[in-house]
Amino acid sequence: MANPVNIKINKVKDRKPEERLAWRRDYLSRKTGRKTEHNLRMKENISNLRRTLRQITASGDQAKATETLQKLQSALDKAAKVGVMHKRTASRRKSRLSKSVAALKTA
Which CATH class name applies to 15-106? Predict the structure, then answer.
């Protein structure tokens, strides 16, 4: 039989007030880091799609432009839903990009 391992886990509720505060600060720091990384990834995805859409509209390909616009609108909606950006900011960007794609149809 293997040797039993005795590990004492110091629970948060059993700690002193100073230790609780230190633990909470570390916890919030880690949480903020995760959220910041997630938000940056989402913003980077949106900017990449926006750049792609601008290149496609410059070339004049209407089918690819509408497809990319749908992906971009979806990404903007998701970013607004989880709070990466404000819902009105997402709506404004969707409106302006839709106008640029609609200009391809008339041209």
Answer: mainly alpha
